[in-house]
Amino acid sequence: MIAALALVGLALAADVPPASLALQSALEAELARVSGLRLPDAPTPWLVSYDVLDGPLHYAAAEDGALYGTNHTVHRMLRAQVRVGDAVVDSSNFSSFGGPDGVQLRALPEEDLAVALRREIWLSTDAAYKGAVELLSQKQAVRRGLKEAPPPDYEVLPPTVVAPGAPVGSALGSAAVDALARDLSSAASVGVIEAAQAEVRDWHGWHLTVASDGTRAWRPAGNVVVRVQASVRRADGTEVRNARWWVERDASALPTSEAMLAETRAMAARLVEIAAAPDPEPWLGPVLFEGPAATELFSQLLAPELVGTRPEESDDSMLIGGGTPRARLGRRLLPEGWRVWDDPTSRSGAAGEYTLDHEGVAPHRVDLVVGGVVKDLLMSRIPGKERVHSTGHGRGLGDGRRAAIVGYTHVAAPKLLPARALRRRALDLANAAGLPGVLVVTRLTPPAMVEGLEFAMSGDAPLAGLTAPYEACMLDKKGVCAPVRNLRFVGVDRRALRDIVAAGPGPGPENQLDGPPGTGRYTIGTTGGIPTTWSVPSVLVSELELEPAVGGEPRVIRVERGEK
Amino acid sequence: MFWLALVAIGSRGALAAPEAQGDVLATMRTALEEAEQKLEAATAREADDAYALSYEVVDHRETTIQGSHGAAAGTVGSRRRSVDVDVRVGSPELDSTHKIRDESMFGGDERARWIVGFEGPLDPLRRLLLRATDDAFRQARSRLLKVRSNAAVKVAREDGSADYGPAPAVTHIAPPAPVMVDSAAWKATTRELSAIYLQWPEIIDSAVQLVVTEDDRWLVNNEGTQVADGRRHLRFATWATAVADDGMELSVYDYVDVASPDHLPSPAAMEAIVRGVAERTAALRKAPVVDPWTGPAILRGRAAGVFFHEIFGHRIEGHRQKDEDEGQTFTKRVGQPILPAFLSVVDDPTLTRLAGEDLNGHYAVDGEGVAAERVSLVDHGILRNFLLSRTPIEGFPRSNGHGRRQPGNAIVPRQGNLMVQAEGVVSFAELRKRLVAEAVRQKKPWGLLFDDISGGFTFTGRSTPNSFVVQPVVVWRVWADGRPDELVRGVDLIGTPLATFANILAAGGDTEVFNGVCGAESGWVPVSASSPSLLVSEVEVQRRAKGNDRPPLLPAPMASTAAASR
Fold it and tell me: pTM here?
């Protein structure tokens, strides 16, 4: 409790240093030399851009109230990208599996010493240029024989110039991050719960872009992420899990530590209740998605259908990005009357809002789905066949491309039933199908916490269906919702959204961590994940199939909790 | 493939001593007794019980303070408390750890890796130990079924020894004191020393660092063994990289390993190390490449130590003598000559220092709770013994305290401080004279002097050639006609063990120590290898793998300003 109280007091103890003009000078000095980069019979750079994330990082992981991992450091990472060719065909948007790369990542020294900074920038630029030259030739070789030229590689726009303002964002600091991880993991570690972990990541600082097209853009950057998860192992060996998570722009937007502790305790209590539920039965019938489950449903099934960034070309489409789904204009995604738009500019304080994307483009509202049909797409500066202009949604992680991802997405139904009426409608649907009740799902497993390889490895793969429910119950005619456990969806894809038959009040705006397919999309250890926000209604889907996911070997040794 | 490599592992965090906390050892004992009781009750009606149970907890703290190009590059640290639980089901004669022959590469049981909080109350540790015991027991019980069916299906084993040998209970309570390091002062030191490299424009990348490692360890088993000890290690290290005109990346790494801050080099010595690395890197860039060649060579002490570690040390690890997938070079050679009579080899983990240096392979009690022993492996050329854990081999039923692991791995016998000892040694000048004479005798224009090495590796299995590679960083061509020695680059020393041993002609009196970490089945463990310089009548060198990138296209930024201060 002492630590929790300390957190409230420390919440606004910002430790974000002012923007480093020495860093900008070093980048500009090396940029001024890139015209000298030449290789025999090879193209010279047509665009060089440097992005630096610079700021303090605080990370802590705890189990059962004790820290098991911490990282309190300065995260000062350079991303140098060199493009050769021209805006129509250049070395970008192409991957060579294990081969050269036109993008280099390199940690920069924490001190503002010009020679030290410039050495790292120099080496990164040199490697990126050589990689870009090789990539372009490989790309040209792969493209031979194509009947139709792909769209241009880059949209040329006027440079963006934004001077650094005052540091923005409040950082928790190392002691508060440690304390929060300890307290939350301890709060979840009760009763029959076998293991409970909490992770807290707080990174705040600056994102500086310096590019040869004249762009000089400073913007405050960072976010705070809190995750708590817990598991119970039933006597029959089946594991049951639950979690809570918070994603915010900065610590001042987090709930109070007392509120997070209360929510964590509620999660733990709910987990114990769910773990005691009887063995699950297969389900084929209507499913009502309420609360955070509705957000996760749209985030998983809808988001990939709204992004117009074309898949990366490669020397082996089987290995890299070949299966990434492509959004299509004119495709029906939702029933008649539904609308979807994305607007990162609304200034409500949501984590998915921003003023400049990672390519220096100011975002604007995009009306994506009208009348249930895709009318527009989110774009980065990578033009597509159907849309060629950036909408200011180009964001990315590490050395990955700056592809379009959602910012603050709103999903609106033509008609909202009151919550109780929505449940009645669900029961009516179940009754018509001869079922005694309806399945209500209130929380789905976030992709970052799925143990399946397709997510755990790297986040590269497109989402495979819909993740399993963490929290679900069977609602009967008397209004009683009995906990259900260990079910997983079968054969769900975007077409399930067309089977939405009714909607009700949603959970309100919810922040998530996401990113383009690639490394770091779901990890939070350093600066992985990009904040997004969703505002969606609760929805009733007419029919979905779920199967039991039970198993495991009973424990031989029963472990009772001792004194804390 | 087994590596003796020098790898400085970067990490994050801050220098900090462990917090005061309850008795970890007592908690482990409590958990072990509770687990034994519960297992006994739960398996009373089953034929197979858990007859051996041990817990090992290692609290690892590491801090790296680094300077690069004259700037502080960060002080980063990490801390991790690992838990290993070993459960053997069956009987010492045949248990769940027995090798399953011809097992599918996907059929192996994955060993669980556990970590636990490094602070606060100890009940989470107790519960984790019980959970881990439960997982390990169930996995071992299942594996024993496979072991038995495998034994029934396959022909009889050549080595019929048991799976687990006896060992007396050990009590060893010797927790080391925390290492006190002034991180601010070291930040300044590494920053200043790293600026020296700026004086060499041909050096494109470089760093200077101090790595401080503190391990606290607790071990208990169901035979009454109790251990609370640890290890302290500091490494002052520096490296520089240049690229030759032919694209060969040339990295020179130098370091000093010590067990106490008092043993770290003086400021002048550190500067000399940095300048030495810079000068060698610059010189290597201009050095000629040697083509594949055979002929006489001297291996200086450190190089000879690694040479023995690879070609001999890994082949006398006990488990390889009973594993029928292994080459078993020396299994049937006990009591027979395998080396010239003037050479002996011992492994002595109890030794802390040799030739004025701290030894990396020192420990008092091994990972199975057995007191480390000095083992005479080769006595005047005759093979006498093997490195043994509690897994017996035919004719050697007892552990000599060499069961080791990196946390998270199953224990196998490993080297500690491997020492080559020689009689009838000659001075280095005399050894060099003999090298020239040998070159003349063989009608070779020159011999090679392997002055320093970075590491090596070897293959010990039957399905691959039983060869070794030693990777030198400083090699001199010694001309037979009296020309000055010439620095060369781009070669690795290769060979096969038995043929190479037969070629050792003489030893110098200049014992040197190579400290490093060795990677094998049970993970990375600290080791040392020491030897006098050795004259070998014939070695073979092959071209080293090299990069193909051009050197940086632009000159280093601000190079003229920095070089002016040289």
Answer: 0.90
